[in-house]
């Protein structure tokens, strides 16, 4: 049977992709950020996941205001790389896992989650930056990827509670897939950042770390943080952290923390990263 | 399923207006700014960028955008564009067309110059203290005045 063996949380700031693509990972600015991922890159080499369910958001790259799906899953064979206005990132095409993706989609719908299905889908930095952070610059990504896109741009975005619950349903779906597969789930985005208005540049180290503590906890209090708290405390774009709750919901009640990293700043954003293992 | 009472949409939205210096991208703004945002998306295509750069006004006239919106786009007045329903992920396509870094464009929405803004970020960013709630800020100001 397939099994979710680990969960990864990570920021997906576009500038990190630029740093990888231009070989700046060790310079004074980016060095302290990337050193926090060295552990994870080694760990991923040993873990060799078959599939990653990668929870991310599109940043007006492939999706425009014509369609705003709350939860969407990529069921295609492969996914192209978006041109976000300066040419597509020089990274390998992303290979999907249509059998598992459709299985998850069907299971979620039976569990009352009304999914949007994408067959053709190009993915932006929200998905490719975490791949670069975890895997570096391989010629081909070492695993298959199921893109799981969440609307965190147009309000209301899904509640933390709903995100946690869909994570639980993803775990259930994966565990009922008959093939033996090592599956990881990644929640990406955040941490605190605000990219708009006179309050742009807001960061909140204390709150971000409290959020990481809550992810490590045996209880599910973190799912009940209301949107207004994310907005006040972590900036208008900090709301992306609800996507980490999909990952956490898929871990089960108890988790073991394998790795944790936090750094301020990267461009406008606080960088957070955590690796969890189910411990039920 | 854990308890999570459904929120009243009016109360939910009203709270957003209490955040200092922030315009949350609500459905009302998304609706108002639809064509501003779709125009911005068009900047992803090189041929559109070229036509826009050649004659910005003529290119904007092809879109169903109000005169106020067109003027704000021509001025690159991003705070005005947020008020008109622009969203920063869409507007960022215009930052790219102009060839300016995202963070520099963010700085134009604040009361800082780009070097000042960049230094603030290097120093740990804008602090949440005093930036959480307009209501709380007013109450604190009133209390401070009262104690004088």
From TrEMBL, chain A:
Name recorded for this polypeptide: Protocatechuate 4,5-dioxygenase beta chain
GO molecular function, one term: protocatechuate 4,5-dioxygenase activity
Cited Pfam families: LigB
Entry EC number(s): 1.13.11.8
Record organism: Novosphingobium sediminicola
Coiled coil: none
EC primary class: oxidoreductase
UniProt key word Coiled coil: no
The keyword Oxidoreductase appears for this protein: yes
Keyword entries, A-Z: Dioxygenase, Oxidoreductase
Automatic annotation (TrEMBL), chain B:
Enzyme Commission no: 1.13.11.8
GO MF assignments: protocatechuate 4,5-dioxygenase activity
Pfam families from the UniProt entry: LigA
Domain Extradiol ring-cleavage dioxygenase LigAB LigA subunit per the UniProt entry, residue ranges: 36-121
Keywords annotated in UniProt: Dioxygenase, Oxidoreductase
Catalytic EC class: oxidoreductase
NCBIfam families (UniProt xref): PCA_ligA (TIGR02792), PRK13377.1 (NF009917)
Name under which the protein is recorded: Protocatechuate 4,5-dioxygenase alpha chain
Organism of provenance: Novosphingobium sediminicola
